[in-house]
Amino acid sequence: MDGKEDKRIERYLLQSVARKAIPKERVAKCFRRRLPSQNAHVWKHLKTEKCFYGGLTVCGSLWTCPVCAAKISERRRTELKQALGYFKQEGGRVAMLTLTFSHKFDDKLSDTIVRFQKAIERLRSGKRYKLLMDKLGLIGTIRSMEITYGINGFHPHVHILYLYENKVVLKEIEKVFFDLWLLACKANDLTTQEQYGAKFEDGKKADGYVSKWGLEEEVTKSHSKKGRNGGLTPFDFLRMYVEIEDEKYLRLFEEYAHATKSKRQLTWSKGLKDRFLIEEKSDEDLAQEKTEQADLLGEIDYDTWKWILRLEKRGEFLRMVEQNGFESAYEIFYEDYLDGYDLENKKSPDRAHGSKGHTK
Description:
Helix content is about 45%, strand content about 15%. With about 350 residues, the protein is of the alpha+beta class. The chain has a 5-stranded antiparallel beta sheet with strand order 6-3-5-4-7. The chain is globular, with a radius of gyration of 23 Å.
């Protein structure tokens, strides 16, 4: 099994853990419940030859669904890469501001996010901020929120990409940013420190994951990261539950899901997408859309789909189809996972309605 297949199987497994943590949210039905009057479909991308499901409910949650997050963040990364590429061709400059604050283990995430967002709005208002943007020759901003967890509890922080035109000394700009951020934090009962509170770095020099992923991945792919230095990401909560089945990780994920519900993970300043000819689409739109040509390989009957769900083998079944073909995957699934199952007709490939040659 290669790394990409491992990740796909893991995403479906983690999604099932999220369902256990927040059973009343849409992620609990995502890629499980069939659409009205449909069976689950299996499609195969013509270009990548990777299989995927159709005919199922999709939640479109970037915050809480590992399956949807993978697709949405890749689309967002493509949008951001397009914008940054065009802007650099025009001779523009890009730098990233990272904002953070001090927090304690017993801080409630929903409360700190509210104060954090108010502090960010305070930072970005007023005459001093406007003068600073004039000095940069600001074209626009793209803001992303990320949440990790460590010995001091939940740690929300924000990355803001600044697209600007003028040549400036970044350390001088960073000093002004921190002064403004310190005042904004104090106004919202938050504290911060100069060594980490407001870091303003050139896109080529920003450390950590910027070096590893590239600037667009730092801003859009927080869902796929794993925590550093003993810290955890929210999807690490799901991984930890898989490993040791400690209920506290379900509670932590539930708190995170509640605090981020209806929040935007990525925000472009007004008019910036239009400038770079990027169509406005919601996360749910991106999770549902199919942009590549694909063949419909077949439909999965209701009874077999129930077994795939019950045994948590959605990722494994797709791998079987890729390796063996749709009808053979049916037989292999029953032999590998339901050996000795009494109803012989459920092992029959006649239950698989193959339908090649369609595109979607």
